[in-house]
Specification:
By secondary structure, this protein is mainly α. The chain folds into 2 domains: 83 residues; 38 residues. 62% of the residues lie in helices and 12% in strands. The protein contains 6 helices and 3 strands. It has a 3-stranded antiparallel β-sheet with strand order 1-2-3.
Length: 160
Amino acid sequence: MACVMSQDAQLGSLAIMVTAGILGGIASRNAALPRLAIAQICLGAVPIGLGALLAPRGASWILVPPLFMYIAAMAAIVRRQSEEGGPLDLTLSDGRQLEMTRNPVPDGSAVIIIEDVTERRQSEAKMLYWARHDPLTGLPNRRYLRERLEIWASGAASSE
């Protein structure tokens, strides 16, 4: 808070970046205990917001809205990871696909692994396509037709 309130803009920026990194580590380390992780994130981020509001520089308040969005995003990630047993899929703007998995550790914490699964997903999509289409003509095969008929039959039965 004092770093953000100081007259040194570089010191304030450095304090914010370091705190954001530490908070990310806290969230991943304590994802198995979501209340603890969220409390630690808030206790680390709120002083920065207070420092920005109380700073003698007039424009420091501009840090507060993104800070609260950061807290909300980190809390959502911690909750999502604690609720779901499976991986969290993330699609980046450049089309790459990431998979984030949480692996519990005996001490109650967790290890978060982020993996680029773009090539694997593309290979799976190709295999699924060729399982339902003729390799010579590319036309749908019997399996594809049977699956479509089952979907159509279940849809028609549910609408009656």
